């Protein structure tokens, strides 16, 4: 295995499966808490959907970590978890559209990419090439095989949609006159700009065995929840 992999594997404690699982359930709990505040609110439902997609991905990866000794099983659960990833970032933009009562044809185009991603992931065997698994890490890919290009596509898509969401909230902030709504949009713009750093979850495609989003994501999800309820 590559020396770079051995180096990054030293930081395996950043990927602890049980802590990651607790983080996932905490994120979903925040979503449910907000939703129960007003079950009829489209915004609260959009927020719950966003937290569900994140939780689903985290838990799929957790089970993959726990089955690291059997690569085929670890790959299966990675694929289960990744099945929600194509719509995860789209749920960010959907949250913006719902909160601001906007419509966008772009979101329908973004959703059209999801079946293509899922068909490739479930219909090809590229995922097996270059795949390895480690304790507290789950699956990662060494040597930049063909499947890593799929990972790159997902990463670029995530960055694009998250930045789109952040800039959209920034635009709302600049145009809004009401002080309370202005503060809400400012807070959400900052949070989504920071969430762009979630691209690090895709570095497993480049031979870097780390999944560290669980450490910080609950804080930002809680910040979004506060911005919704407070303002």
Write the layout of secondary structure elements.
Layout lengths: L2 H7 L7 H21 L4 H25 L4 H12 L2 H15 L6 H18 L7 E4 L3 E4 L4 H30 L3 H17 L17 H18 L1
Antiparallel strand pairs: 1-2
Helix pairs in contact: 2-3, 2-9, 3-4, 3-5, 3-9, 5-6, 5-7, 7-8, 8-9
Main attributes of the structure:
231 residues; mainly alpha; two-stranded antiparallel ribbon; 2 strands
Task: Report on the architecture of this protein.
The protein is 71% helix and 3% strand. The chain has 231 residues and is mainly α. A two-stranded antiparallel sheet has the order 1-2. α5 (85-99) packs parallel to α7.
Output the helix-strand order: HHHHHHEEHHH
Specify the structural class. Answer: mainly alpha
Task: Give the number of helices.
Answer: 9
The main pleated sheet reads as: 2 strands, antiparallel
Secondary structure tally: strands: 2
Shape descriptor: globular
Radius of gyration: 18 Å
Low-confidence regions: none
Short description:
The protein is mainly α and 231 residues long.
